[in-house]
Amino acid sequence: MSELHYLTATEMARLVRTRQVSAVELLEAHLTRIEQVNGPLNAIVTLVVEQALDQARAADARAPEGPLHGLPVAHKDLVDTANIRTTYGSPLFSGNIPTKDALIVRRLKAAGAITVGKTNTPEFGTGSHTVNEVFGATRNPYDPARSAGGSSGGAAVALAAGMVPLADGSDMGGSLRNPASFCNVVGLRPTPGRVPAVSDTAAWFTLSVQGPMARTAEDAALMLSVIAGFDPASPYAITETFTPDPERGIAGLRVAWSPDLGGLPVDPDTAAVTATAPAVFERLGARVEQVDLDLSDAEDAFRIYRAWYYALSFGDLDGLGDNTRWNVERGREVTGADLARAERLRSGLYQRMAAFFDTYDLLIAPVSQVPPFPVGQPHVTEIDGQAMPDYLAWMRSAYWISVLHAPAASVPAGFTPSGLPVGVQIVARPFADALALRAAHAFEQATGYGSRRPPLG
Predict the structure, then answer these.
(1) If you write DSSP's letter for every residue of 297-363 in order, what string do you get?
(2) Residue 293 is assigned to a structural domain of this protein
(3) Number of helical (H) and strand (E) elements in the chain, helices listed first
(4) Cα dihedral angle (428, 431, 434, 438), rounded to 10 degrees?
């Protein structure tokens, strides 16, 4: 119990439920940890101590209720939280205090979770490197001179450093998966609609999703069981209940292994770590086959839809940061013919992958094409000698998967020779979120990489 903050969320919930630990004790352990390590890492950017203590005392005063009763959680600073500062990582909203909680926050509260604060994100979640003009950069706990990834970088660092057991994130081009890979935690991009997306301006936009982040796949599944479920405010919300199924294992499953997703450059250290994953799946009883997979149609489809979304969502704002403004400018160039081509490319790719998943149960591949890069570097400019044309290009291994409408988990897969974390991406057919998490659970149980803590003291 001396490291209460590093127990799993599942174990914490059991201890609170059986009253072996009070919600106040659990919260105080995490507040102490935040005080110890958050300063140099800059993961939690808004902390609500008194509000959280009031909620914890109230939780202890009533019978345990909800699967997350008494557990502290942090919310990404893109997510509205009533009466708690929510900046979206932008100076334009540095003083913004919403009056209502977002749906995902309401669901976590209803399950008994206690909000401790907000986690850092780049402006409007733009990019896989967590830095903004409001709060500055979030640093990797395994090497503070390195990036935490993004855009849910604050969430990933808070988890890895033991500041919270659960955190929410969002993912358009890899923002749940990339920081999970960089920080040695688990992030799941759910099937679009699994966690209902509520929007007044882009209600039908399926590239961006919200999802769970945790230190284990079992904890991510626990959180997903709370935040998933139908809501009529989303036009494509999935009606079925999400039921975790972590213990069935993966023996007999057919697994496709793609080391580069059809020719993408991969850093040699990253490639060496992810290349160990197929043997683990084989030891677990899966049948693994290396495949020559061509997902290149996802490139234009993703970029066109993303650009259109940015122009729609942020085109009326003045004073945007460089990355957000660049995306808006690309969106203003999108034509009807471009959108037609994007829809045609994505539809064809979806049908080809439907046939692919008739043959294979899972696809495994790198999450990110590089290990964590220097925190002062705005983005990756080259991979294994190949120049990246813009700040988006180095994220293809994640954003090509986003186009598939499929669940994808990032799970710790090992470390580079210099001690930097690397994750492996586990992709299942659309709507098979439980299978992706089941495979992630089996992998992490077989390897133990996720239990290696950062050297923070």
Answers:
(1) HHHHHHHHHHHHHHHHHHTT-SS--HHHHHHHHHHHT--HHHHHHHHHHHHHHHHHHHHHHHH-SEE
(2) yes
(3) 14, 17
(4) -10
- Residue 198 sits in a domain whose CATH number is 3.90.1300.10
151 labelled catalytic: yes
The pLDDT score that the predictor gives to residue 457 is 73
Q: How far apart are the first and last CA of the chain?
A: 16
Rounded to 10 degrees, what is the CA torsion of 302, 307, 309, 311? Answer: 180
Question: Helix, strand, or coil here: 367?
Answer: coil
Choose, from 76, 234, 368, 410, the residue flagged as catalytic.
Answer: 76
Judging by beta carbons within 10 Å of its beta carbon (0-12, 13-18, 19+), is residue 6 exposed, middle or buried? middle
- How far from 211 is each of 28, 192, 301, 417, CA to CA, in Å? 26, 10, 22, 31
Q: Which of 151, 152, 181, 225 is catalytic?
A: 151
Residue 109 annotated to the active site: no
Q: Which residues pair with 412 in a beta bridge?
A: 423
Nearest CA-CA partner of 88 in 75, 100, 99: 75
* Sign of the four-CA dihedral 157, 381, 78, 191: negative
Q: Which of 119, 151, 170, 131 is nearest to 378 (CA)?
A: 131
Structural domain contains residue 25: yes
Please check whether residue 400 is in contact with residue 365, taking contact to mean a CB–CB distance below 8 angstroms: no
Q: Are 156 and 130 a contacting pair, CB within 8 Å?
A: no
Q: State how far Cα 255 lies from the chain centre.
A: 23
436 occurs within a structural domain: yes
Region class of 367: left (phi > 0), else alpha (psi between -120 and 50), else beta: alpha
CB atoms inside a 10 Å sphere around CB 169: 33
User: What single letter denotes the amino acid at residue 388?
Assistant: M
Say if 456 falls within a structural domain. Answer: no
**Range of 388's domain?**
4-451
> Which pTM was predicted?
0.98
Residue 242: burial class (beta carbons within 10 Å; 0-12, 13-18, 19+): buried
Has 175 been annotated as catalytic? Answer: yes
Mean pLDDT by 10 residues, the chain (457 residues): 88 98 98 98 98 98 96 98 98 98 98 98 97 98 98 98 98 98 98 97 97 98 98 97 89 98 97 98 98 97 98 98 97 98 98 98 98 98 97 97 98 98 98 98 98 93
Residue 400, C-beta contacts closer than 8 angstroms, at least 6 positions apart: 261, 295, 296, 298, 299, 302
Domain count, the chain: 1
Which one from 152, 175, 208, 368 is the annotated catalytic residue?
Answer: 175
Alpha-carbon distance 143 to 146, whole Å?
6
